[in-house]
Amino acid sequence: MSPRVCHPVCIEMRHTPIFDAELLQRHDRPGPRYTSYPPAPRFGTGFGEEQLRAQAPRSDKATIRRALSLYLHVPFCFGPCFYCGCNRIITRDRTKGEHYAERLRQEIGLVAPLFDASREVVQLHLGGGTPNFLGVPTLERLMGTLNGSFRLSPSTDRDFSIELDPRSVPEEYPAALARLGFNRVSLGVQDFDPYVQEAVNRIQNVEQTLSLVDACRDRGVKSVNVDLIYGLPHQTLEGFRRTLRTVISARPDRVAVYGYAHLPDVFKPQRRIDASALPGPEVRLQLLGLAIEELCLSGYRYIGMDHFALPEDDLVKSQEAGTLQRNFMGYTTHADCDLIGLGMSAISHIGDSFSQNFRELGAWEASVAAGRLPIWRGLALDADDRVRGAVIGQLMCQGRIEIAAIERRYGIHFAGYFGVALERLGPHVADGLVRVEAEAISVTARGQLLLRSLAMCFDRYLDSQDGAATSPRFSQVV
Q1: Taking 90 as the threshold, does the pLDDT of residue 108 lie above it?
Q2: Is it true that the peptide bond before 38 is cis, omega within 30 degrees of 0?
Q3: Which of 357, 380, 403 is the last residue of a domain?
Q4: Strands 184-190 and 159-164
Q5: How far from chain centre, in Å, is Cα 382?
Q6: Which residue has the higher pLDDT, 11 or 184?
Q7: 60/49 same-domain check
Q8: Is 105 contained in some domain?
Q9: What is the mean pLDDT of residues 10-36?
Q10: Is residue 390 domain-resident?
C-alpha cells in the first residue's frame, strides 16, 4: 500500500507537497538539478583563466557588490560507497590530504588577490569526498590561510559548514570545528538498514551517528543536517521507516532525502551494485512518499526538491521572506554571492560567469604549482541566460514566478518572451501542477515534487519538452 498523503493542519499548504504516485510516475524523466543555469554540462573549454581574471574585477565594480561564498572540495575518502557519484579519490594515506591542503593554500594565494579585500565571506563550505579526512592540524592551517587571505565574516548569521562521515570523525573534531568557526555540519547516513549498507559498502551504526550529532551540538554547532537516500538496493518500506524515525528522533535541523540515480555508465563505482536489487518504480515512489509523510507529520517543512527543515531553521525563514537561493551547495540563505570554488572539480559563479576547475587531481595540481588558475571550462552568461536563470531560480526556491518583477528587471514582455515555455507548461497546468495567471506562475501542492520538470520548460538548452529524455547526464527528476 502506498503511504498516505500527509496534510498536517499546523503546516501551510505550500509547505506540504501532495504525493500522487501516478502523477509523479507520468511526469518523471531525466533532467538537470538546476544548481546553476545553464547546467554544468553546458560549460565549455573556451572559457578559461583569462576569462575568469576578467570577471573578478567586474564583480568588484558591480553597482551592487555581492558578498563572497567559498566552496572547498576535499576529494579523499577512506573507502568507496558504491552509490556515490561525487568526484573523489579512495585512499587511507592521510599524508595525501596534507599535500592536497598545501596545494589548496597555494590556490587560495592565487585567487584571493583577484577580489577586493573588503568583500566579506558570509558562507564557507567544505565538501567532498570526506572533508574530515583532513586531520585537525591540517584543517587549522587551511583555515588560517583562508582567514589571512579573505575577510571572513564574524557575524552569527554566517554559514560556515562542513560535510562529515560519522564513521571516521575523531573524538576531538567537533570541538575543533567549533573553535575554527564552523556552525553547521552535514552528516551522511543514507540508510541504517544493515542489508542496504552492505549492498552499497557503507557500514555505519546508529550509535556513532547519533553520538556525533550530540557531540556537535554540545560544542555549539547550531545546525545539523542529515542526508538520506531512497532507491538504494534492498530498501524496503519498513526498513526505511525505521531509518527515518531514528533520524527524526535526533531532531536534525535539516534533512535531505535524495533519490538514488543509478548511472553506472557515468559513475564506475555503481557497477558494483546489483541492479536487480534496486527497488522498482512503484516501490521507489512509495519510499519517497513515506519520507514525506514521516517528516511532515514530525513537524518538518518542505523546502523544495529533496530538502526539509524545522520551522525555526534559517532555510524556512529565508523562504518565507522570499530570499531563499540555490547554488551548487543546494538550497541556501547566502547564494546571492560571488561563489569561489577551490580544489579539483570545484565550480565558481563569479559575476556573470560560471567556471569549473580541472576534475583530475594531476591537472589541477600542475596548474596551481605553475601559478595558474586551474580553470578547465566555464561559461559567460548572455542576457537570455540571466533572465531564464532568474525565472528558474524563483521557481525552484519560491515555487512562484513574479511576472511583473521579471518584466521590470529585464525589460521584457513575459508572455511573448516565454511563449514556448508557456506552451510546454500546458500539460503541467492540465494536471494541476502549476497555475498560470496574469500576475504570477505558481506551483501547486501537487507540483512541488516536480519542480525540476517544471523548470525544464524554461530551459532553452533542451531541444523540446522531452529533450533530455535520452541524455545520460541527468538523473530522474523524482
Answers
A1: yes
A2: yes
A3: 380
A4: parallel
A5: 24
A6: 184
A7: yes
A8: yes
A9: 79
A10: yes
- Percent of the chain scored above 90 by pLDDT? 82
Does 184 share its domain with 277?
A: yes
Same domain, 181 and 301: yes
Q: Which domain holds residue 434?
A: 16-32+383-456
The pLDDT tens digits of the residues spanning 397-436 come to: 999 999 999 999 999 999 999 999 999 999 999 999 999 9
Point out the domain boundary residue: 276, 310, 344.
310
Reported as a pLDDT band with limits 50, 70 and 90, residue 2 is: very low
- Give the tens place of pLDDT for each residue, 332-377: 887 679 999 999 999 999 999 999 999 999 999 999 999 999 999 9
163 backbone dihedrals φ, ψ, rounded to 5°: -90, 135
Q: Using CA of residue 425, residue 430, residue 435, residue 439, what is the dihedral sign?
A: positive
Say how many domains are in the chain.
3
Q: CA 91, 97, 103: angle at the middle one, nearest 5?
A: 135
Residue 50 and residue 138 in one domain: yes
Q: Which is nearest to 477 in space by CA: 228, 235, 259?
A: 259
Place of cell 519510499: 287
Task: Look at residue 15 in the predicted model and tell me its pLDDT.
Answer: 59
Instruction: Identify whether 10 is part of a domain.
Output: no
Gap between the Cα atoms of 121 and 339, Å rounded: 10
8 pLDDT band, cuts 50/70/90, is very low
Predicted confidence at residue 129, as pLDDT, reads 95
Average pLDDT of span 1-21 = 52
Q: Buried (b) or exposed (e) across 70-104, using 16+ Cβ within 10 A?
A: bbbbbbbbeeebbbbebbbbeeeeeeebeebbebb
- Do 174 and 105 have their domain in common? no
CATH number at residue 187: 3.30.750.200
Q: Of 189, 181, 176, 170, whose CA–CA distance to 147 is shortest?
A: 181
Residue 468 has a pLDDT of 42
Distance in angstroms (rounded) separating the CA atoms of residues 332 and 230 = 22
Q: Are 396 and 34 in contact (CB under 8 A)?
A: yes
The answer to whether residues 176 and 71 belong to one domain is no
Residues 146, 112 contacting (CB under 8 angstroms) = no
**Quick one: 232 and 269 in the same domain?**
yes
Does 471 have pLDDT greater than 50?
A: no
Same domain, 178 and 275: yes
Residue 230 domain flag: yes
What pLDDT was estimated at residue 335? 65
Q: What is the share, in percent, of the chain residues with pLDDT greater than 70?
A: 94
